[in-house]
Design goal:
Layout: H1 17-35, H2 42-46, E1 49-56, E2 62-69, H3 76-85, H4 87-97, E3 105-110, H5 113-125, H6 127-134
Parallel strand pairs: 2-3
Antiparallel strand pairs: 1-2
Helix pairs in contact: 1-4
């Protein structure tokens, strides 16, 4: 009898529905707390920080929070350092909103989504790419769609 595959923990799968739901709840909670300046750190409260995404580990014990200061108001390293200093209080605020057995450990990382978006725009503006996108799809002569060369 073949062993059953454990689909729940397969490494090739993306996040499951629960991970996505918990991540979004953490993101909204942190965004609200930071927006209302509810943390007892004046330096952090002066920063405008956006929480772009939160990804949770499969066991929901670690949440990686992707953040970026708005409009480049402060260096991202300073924002991450301020968040890390106040991790315990932020975790407490998140825990009060969740109905999980454990409050996840928060890890703060820079949100590089906008950098990737700029790079994608730059690539699409490349003349070679524009030319390729404008050209109709053509198949080389002699090649049939099924991979045969058309000879008998």
């Amino acid at each position: 009898m073949a062993p059953m595959s454990n689909k729940r923990n397969s490494p090739g799968d993306g996040p499951n529905q629960r991970q996505l739901r918990v991540g979004e709840l953490i993101r909204r909670t942190l965004a609200d707390v930071l927006n209302r300046a509810e943390i007892h750190d004046p330096e952090l409260n002066r920063m405008s920080i956006t929480v772009g995404e939160v990804s949770c580990s499969t066991d929901l014990k670690v949440a990686t929070v992707y953040v970026m200061p708005l409009m480049g108001s402060v260096p991202v390293e300073d924002a991450i350092a301020a968040l890390a200093r106040n991790k315990a209080e932020l975790r407490h605020r998140v825990a009060s909103q969740l109905t999980l057995k454990y409050a996840p450990d928060l890890r703060f990382r820079p949100d590089e989504t906008f950098d990737r978006l700029d790079e994608t725009r730059r690539l699409f503006a490349d003349p070679k790419v524009i030319k390729d996108l404008a050209a109709p799809d053509e198949e080389p002569e002699g090649d049939a769609p099924d991979g045969r060369d058309g000879t008998a």
